[in-house]
Amino acid sequence: MEYRSVYRLMAYLFFAYSTMTIVMSYIPLYFQADGLSGNEVGILMAIGPFATIIAQPFWGFMSDKYKTIKRMIVISAIGVVIAAAGFMLMGQFYGYLIMMFVLFLFLSPLTALGDSLSQKTATLKGVSFGRIRMWGSLGFATTSLLTGYVLTTIGVERVMIPMIIMAVLALVMALTIEDVKGTNKPVTIISALKIGLNKKLMFFLLCVVFISITHRANDSYLGLYIVGLGGAESLIGWAWFVGVSAEALVFATSPLWFRKFNPLSFIVIAGFIYSIRWVLMGMITSPWMVLPLQLTHGISFGMFYIAAFQYVNKLIPEHLQATGHVLFITTFFGLSGIFGSLFGGWMIDGFGLKALYFCLGVSAIIGVAGLMIFNQKTKVNSSAA
Predict the structure, then answer these.
(1) Where do transmembrane segments lie in this chain (predicted)?
(2) What is the mean predicted confidence (pLDDT) over 104-123?
(3) Main-chain dihedrals φ then ψ at residue 162, nearest 5 degrees
(4) How confident is the model at residue 385 (pLDDT cuts 50, 70, 90)?
(5) Given this model, what pLDDT does residue 188 score?
(6) What's the whole-model pTM score?
(7) CB count, 10 Å around CB of 191?
(8) Spatial separation of the C-alpha atoms in residues 47 and 96, rounded to whole Å
(9) 143-155 pLDDT, tens per residue?
């Protein structure tokens, strides 16, 4: 069957993102339950993105160099299973610090390379990227919801059990997916490094950071915010389920709306929605009020991610696409994750979570302003050409 490879890739994304959601949604609670402070949790949540900055460009370069994404995904999935098992043997702050670094060396490319393969597969098969990628969102949403109830029963200290299960399932599906062969043009370290000399790409990513910092800070501290407002662990699962289900809907319907405007226009709109969302989050008083606001996650992240991914795709040569894709994802989830986690931990200890969300709103607006300037300069340069 022609589209069998697409279905297998969808299944892989489901379990890969299921693994990721357990880490992002519940690991902070695991650390807090072990008696760590807000600053310590912030440092631990920042070490993962720090590892991402190292890991994702490496795995992207290796994928382009050896013309295989599948093989790198399989190696990463094996690494995640081993690291998650090793995590259970650790304790105290410094032990967690080491294992978070090791875990993210393998966990971060699990989804980044999956998205890159999805983009290539979508182009080859004539399928919408959003409709493939939505299965990652569905995995994230479903597993987040179910894990909330599971941990309410077995205790958050056993969070590694569901994580290992999902990682093993991701590995099994990774063994069944198909590679998409690129060009035969050789890839060297020099050619990959030249991506960093693309001024247009670098300015775009700089603007993206101001928005993605807010997204990643919320990823790290949403669970703590809900619990701080008096909500149960199961409500965290519902919050992620609502938000990521809306995200999946945006991905699924992307063929209907995406091509109607310039991708940069969608990115700016998404940035505005982000800023409004964070201000409203800082104003709520009941944990249940998080749920309706989570609906805007689908519009803000879903629209932003598809548009930005496609825009970056236009700025890089075909034989370096995996490297370019993970560079964007490294910026969004890695660099921004470090700043978001460290700044968030400092804000929580000094001023509280509500103040954090108001600051996130300001950061998103700064990013939007930068993108509007970038968009205007791009139009002027295009007209001059």
Answers:
(1) 12-31, 43-61, 73-90, 96-114, 135-154, 160-180, 201-218, 264-284, 290-312, 324-343, 355-374
(2) 86
(3) -65, -30
(4) very low
(5) 47
(6) 0.77
(7) 17
(8) 10
(9) 888 887 888 888 8
Residues 318-332 as b/e (b if ≥16 CB within 10 A, e otherwise) read: ebbbbbbbbbbbbbb
CB 50, CB 43: distance < 8 Å: no
Q: Please report, for the chain, the start and end positions of each structural domain, with discontinuous segments joined by +.
A: 4-178+185-384
Q: What is the DSSP letter of 300?
A: I
Contact predicate 164/23, CB 8 Å: no
Query: What contacts 120, CB < 8 A, 6 or more positions away?
Result: 69, 180, 182, 321
Q: Which residues contact 379 (CB under 8 A, 6 or more apart)?
A: none
Residue 246 has pLDDT above 70, yes or no: yes
Give, in words, the CATH class of 4-178+185-384.
Answer: mainly alpha
| CB 55 within 8 Å of CB 106 | yes
> Could you tell me which of 278, 253, 249, 256 has the C-alpha nearest to residue 364?
278
Question: What is the token pair recorded at 155?
Answer: 């205790």
Residue with tokens 């700064």: 366
- For residues 376 and 203, the answer to whether their CB atoms sit within 8 Å is no
Contact 54, 105 (CB under 8 A): yes
Q: What are the tens digits of pLDDT across the range 192-237? A: 555 555 677 778 888 888 998 898 888 878 888 888 888 877 788 7
d(CA 316, CA 329): 14
